[in-house]
UniProtKB/TrEMBL annotation:
Keyword Heme: no
Similarity section: Belongs to the methyltransferase superfamily. RlmI family.
GO cellular component terms, semicolon-separated: cytoplasm
UniProt source species: Thiocapsa marina 5811
Domain of life: Bacteria
Any one GO biological process: methylation
Protein name: Uncharacterized protein
Domain S-adenosylmethionine-dependent methyltransferase: 172-393
Molecular-function annotations in GO: methyltransferase activity; RNA binding
Record Pfam families: Methyltrans_SAM, PUA_3
Length: 398
């Protein structure tokens, strides 16, 4: 597909020159370069209104983010050569960080490949494409991944609703090999059975791995509550650290069945039990039962997916954290997370503090975590810094 020019409106290049790569439709000079003349995924050469070079990228006239910068080198357009370089660069970082091949290999904008996520499970790659630009070069991307990593299996996990915003269909497709939907992943010397074809996201949440490792320094006590446990990553970590009783709460029965399988696999079955139900309902029921825990782990899905969800989402985080704190023993540990980009760290801290006041508790913030280094943050793109994990000591009110 031929590269077309894309000219910005006056004074719209500042954010891009600073390093961001998103271009919104109202930032384009549509009189000079009409968006309607572009095809979804069209490669574009982006310039300012006074002809300053910005970069090579791709466009989608049907999306609010109508273009993304991919290369700032005028001599390096979108091509198989560029994808090979970016994948090699991304792999070099992960190989410095991880002894085992279990991590996020490509994290979109932060790795110079906006619209692409690749998770690595040993010899299997789970690939997710979320933009028309990356969809157009899917074949080139997959060929480059095969060339660099020589995987035995590649799975396309294009079953995310984000694709709808780009006018793309959803689905799961095996591209290479005949993978089973059960493979073994190792984290902190614990083995987990994960499902790369049908599990949430791509089967695992690599972004919390560093935060789960941090649990060791604080001690988890005798009884631990893991809310929104999925397949038990947090809960089994707590059990391995010495907790005698771990209650894993999730709304998915298949996820809780996998918790039991993973607990047995790690010889922790006697310490781990599942409790099925809505997180808020189960927390209220535990409060009625006068249950108490030494550590409460809260890792819910994003309550604020869009800016317009902010008010209701903050209320949900407040309610969840209040209920969690009401179940803690004095001096207990609260580890609480938000993966909502639209909730900044300071707002999240204030929300948990408000929850503490309503629960009659006093907080001490011990540590703030973010996503691990296989999800690197691009300093010019705030949207790449989405995960907040807060470690609190929770005391009676004083």
């Amino acid at each position: 597909m031929k590269t077309q020019p894309l000219i910005l409106s006056k004074d719209q290049e500042r954010r891009l020159i600073a390093g961001h790569c998103w271009i919104y439709s109202n930032e384009v000079n549509t009189k000079v370069t009409p968006l309607k003349d572009l095809q979804p995924g069209q490669p574009v050469a982006i310039r300012s209104d006074h002809d300053r070079w910005i970069g090579h990228g791709y466009a989608n006239p049907h999306s609010l983010i109508c273009a993304r910068v991919v290369s700032r080198d005028p001599t390096q357009p979108l091509s198989p050569t560029l994808w090979l370089k970016r994948i090699h660069d991304a792999l070099a970082l992960r190989e410095r960080l991880y002894a085992r091949p279990f991590y996020r290999l490509i994290f979109g904008e932060s790795d110079g490949m906006p619209g692409l996520v690749v998770d690595r499970y040993g010899d299997l790659l789970a690939v997710q494409i979320t933009t028309a630009g990356m969809e157009r070069v899917q074949g080139e991307i997959l060929a480059a991944l095969e060339q660099v990593l020589r995987p035995k299996a590649i799975v396309l996990r294009n079953d995310t609703s984000v694709r709808e915003m780009e006018g793309l269909t959803q689905g799961v497709e095996v591209i290479l090999g005949s993978p089973e939907d059960r493979l073994t992943l190792v984290e902190n010397d614990l083995e987990f059975l994960v499902s790369p074809l049908t599990g949430q996201k791509t089967g695992w949440f690599f972004d919390q791995a560093e935060n789960r490792t941090r649990l060791a320094r604080y001690g988890v006590g005798r009884r631990v509550l893991d809310v929104c446990s999925y397949i038990g990553a947090w809960g089994l970590r707590a059990a391995a650290l010495g907790a005698e009783q771990v209650v894993c709460v999730d709304s998915s029965l298949p996820a809780l069945e996998r918790v039991a399988d993973n607990a047995a696999r790690n010889r922790l079955a006697e310490r781990v039990q599942g409790r099925h139900g809505d997180a808020f309902d189960v927390l209220r029921a535990l409060r009625e039962e006068d249950a108490r825990f030494d550590t409460v782990l809260l890792d819910p899905p994003a309550f604020i997916k869009r800016r317009k969800d902010e008010k209701d989402g903050i209320a949900a985080y407040l309610r969840l954290n209040r209920l969690g704190m009401e179940l803690l023993e004095p001096g207990g540990l609260l580890v609480t997370s938000s993966c909502s980009f639209h909730m900044g760290r300071d707002v999240f801290v204030r929300t948990v503090q408000q929850a503490a006041r309503r629960a009659g508790r006093t907080l001490q913030l011990l540590e703030t975590g973010q996503q691990g280094p296989d999800h690197p943050v691009h300093p010019a793109i705030p949207e790449t810094a989405y995960l907040k994990t807060l470690f609190f000591r929770v005391l009676p009110e004083f």
